[in-house]
Design a protein that fits this description.
2 helices; single chain
Length: 255
Amino acid sequence: MYTKYMAVITIPEPLRDRLGDRAAESLVDIISEVDVKARHEAILIAEERLERRLSEEIGKVNERLTGIEGKIESESARLEGKIESEAARLEGKIESEAAQLEGKIESEAARLEGKIESEAARLEGKIESEAARLEGKIESEAARLEGKIESEAARLEGKIESEAARLEGKIESKSALLEGEIKSETARLEGKIESEAARLEGEIRNLKSELEEKIDSETSKLENRIDTLELRLTVKLGAVVATGIVIVALLVKML
């Protein structure tokens, strides 16, 4: 058995005996060379076929790639057109919505401004009316108290004058009847008169003090009522102003 170029060639014994060793080796060499050439030619044929097949496959791949590139370009152009069209549509819609919202905001702002002005005018009129009513009530109450004070003073003065006239008449009557006793009782009567005068002066002072306290109490009540009304008006006015500020802030925020 002889090997050459990885090939195994077996020479039968009868043939080997007839040819001899050298002839057998020569035959092996020839067969090996033929086998090498055949292998080389087979490899060349296979390479050529492979190259042709590769060329064909590469051509087919290139054709498919060309078709795919064209399809990609066409699809890309279609998508770009669609994107541009959609973008233009959305831009138009945005502009339309923006214009509509701006108009709505302006309309709402104008309505709120009108409402604020109307409400402010109404509240100003109400405040002026309430102030005029309170001023009239204060003047009326003051006039009533002044009249009551004058009436009470006149009543007391009349009572004092009547009491004095009665006492004077009584004294004169007694003096006419008791002229004799007047001299003896003069000192006592004078003391009594002085005591009575002091008592009357005390009563007058007490009445005057009571009247002054009553006047002060009524004046304090009126002042408290006036302060309460002014506080209520201030609170209402503050609430109106705060509401106006909130509405203006909302309008500024909306704008």
